[in-house]
Write a structure and sequence with these properties.
- This protein has about 270 residues and is an alpha/beta fold.
- It has one domain: Carbon-nitrogen hydrolase (Nitrilase/N-carbamoyl-D-aminoacid amidohydrolase), CATH 3.60.110.10.
- A 6-stranded mixed sheet has the order 5-4-3-2-1-16. Strands 8-9-10-11-14-15 form a 6-stranded mixed sheet, with helices on one face.
- The chain contains 6 helices and 16 strands.
- The longest helix has 19 residues.
Length: about 270
């Protein structure tokens, strides 16, 4: 249970896949240069399309996705654990999976997670999102082994479903990843409080790399990538610009928080109203 340095790469991805890969790789290298052994990128790392249909047109099946081999080679070159927050992976003629990849320091895919909860919402600002129209929701929670303990994988809108995080924590995850592309509207209102709540509720570190700023298609994302400690302290925070934040992670602090407030052991059955 040794300490390590974690990094969040904050991006402002566009619909230019090749350029997004180039920018992400440069910032991943920067994170490694700052001593990070675990480096996470946001949701939609390589493609922020105008809508789900445009994303579907630009997506590839996993076997032919152009980004995954690049990131696998980079993880091996840097000898680092790399969490690619999500790629749009084509799983049928009409659907993609919003898929997160954990890549080990040898370049092997250690875990895959398909976003379970899909963002279908009409916001007061007039923004409308129907992720389920072109995305197939995942069905399985995922916990993966790291050298320092277990990490639970989630993506963006999952953040609003605390039962998922409790399941991951009770399965042994001391750290929870939340790569995101929160809208500016919902981010200003809820981003910090939800991430800190998930950390406190579960006595877990939260690693939340984000998209940030005004994208070329006009979409505005909130940014403010965060690394949160198990007691709820914000260890590192970005602004709205692309870049890197880092924090030192001591897994023993998760065990300490859970000993101080052992709520993960205190679930009781109850009848619904």
């Amino acid at each position: 249970m040794t300490s390590f340095r974690a990094a969040c790469v904050q991006l402002r991805s566009s619909d230019d896949v090749a350029d997004n890969i180039r920018v992400a790789c440069a910032l991943i290298r920067e994170a490694k240069a700052q001593g990070a052994g675990f480096i996470a990128t946001p949701e939609n790392t390589t493609l922020m399309a105008t809508d789900g249909g445009a994303k579907l047109e630009r997506a590839f099946p996993e076997r032919s996705d152009p980004a995954l081999p690049v990131f696998r080679a980079l993880a091996a070159e840097l000898n680092a654990w790399l969490l690619i927050g999500s790629l749009a992976i084509k799983v049928s003629d009409t659907k993609t999976a919003n898929r997160s990849y954990l890549i080990d320091p040898k370049g092997a895919v250690a875990a895959r997670y398909d976003k379970i909860h899909l963002f279908d919402v009409d916001l007061p600002s007039g923004e409308t999102y129907r992720e389920s129209a072109t995305v197939a929701g995942g069905r399985r929670a995922v916990v993966a082994d790291l050298p320092w303990g277990k990490v639970g994988l989630t993506v963006c809108y999952d953040l609003r479903f605390p039962q998922l995080y409790r399941t991951l924590a009770q399965a042994g995850a001391f750290m929870l990843s939340v790569p995101s592309a929160f809208t500016e509207t919902t981010g200003k209102a809820h981003w910090h409080v939800l991430l800190r709540a998930r950390a406190i509720e579960n006595g877990a570190f939260v690693i939340a790399p984000a998209q940030g700023g005004t994208h070329t298609n006009g979409r505005k994302t909130y940014g403010h990538s965060l690394i949160v400690a198990p007691w709820g302290e914000v260890l590192a925070e970005a602004g709205s610009e692309p870049g890197v934040i880092v924090a030192d992670i001591d897994p023993a602090l998760a065990a300490d928080a859970r000993a101080r407030v052992p709520n993960l052991e205190h679930d009781r059955p109850f009848e619904a109203p």
